[in-house]
Specification:
Blueprint (H helix, E strand, L loop, with lengths): L2 H13 L5 H5 L1 H8 L5 H15 L3 H13 L8 H6 L3 H17 L12 H10 L7 H4 L2 H13 L5 H18 L1
Helix pairs in contact: 1-8, 3-4, 10-11
């Protein structure tokens, strides 16, 4: 995986996390960082999202995030939920994610489930072989479904999920 792609994945992992004071305080730094994204469409989507972040209060950002991802199962950021719901198969899929991280020596820094999209993106950003990850390629349709639902509702996070959906499709294509 190219360093530019890993860089983009890291930025996306930050932008898709629950908004907090640290995010708000780092907006200027993130704007400078995003200017380094070489692909114009990806950069513009990220800039659009940062403009949104800069024009809203933290409370508003947190309310939108919570209502979008935490209180709305059809757009939650836990990938296995979209494929398996709350079934035994989902438990097995979560173990697969945990095993993937363990084998790569990746230590999760949060208490989130291993299929939480920002966590998955962070893992990919740190893994030079992220393009060769068949497990993640299995979740292309789920990421695309979330993107589509967000776009239909005019949600500002749709731009970020569009980038992620394209990246997951690339991973799936390379894993075939």
């Amino acid at each position: 995986m190219t360093s530019e792609k890993r860089y983009l994945l890291k930025v996306l992992s930050i932008l898709l996390q629950y908004p907090d004071d640290e995010l708000v305080l780092s907006l200027e730094e993130l704007k400078e960082t995003i200017e380094l994204i070489p692909q114009v469409e990806q950069r513009e989507r990220c800039e659009h999202f940062l403009d949104y972040l800069g024009n809203k209060s933290l409370i508003h950002l947190q309310e939108v995030y919570t209502s979008t991802f935490d209180l709305n199962p059809p757009t939650c950021l836990n990938l296995t939920y979209h494929k398996w719901g709350d079934s035994r198969e989902r438990g097995n899929a979560l173990v697969d994610f945990h095993r993937l991280y363990h084998q790569a020596g990746y230590e999760r820094s949060t208490g989130d489930l291993p299929d939480y999209l920002p966590l998955v993106l962070e893992y990919l950003s740190l893994n030079q072989n992220g393009d060769n990850c068949p497990l993640l390629g299995q979740y292309c349709e789920e990421v695309e479904t979330v993107r589509s639902r967000l776009e239909e509702s005019g949600n500002v996070y749709a731009d970020l999920l569009a980038i992620v959906a394209n990246l997951f499709t690339e991973i799936k294509t390379m894993g075939v």
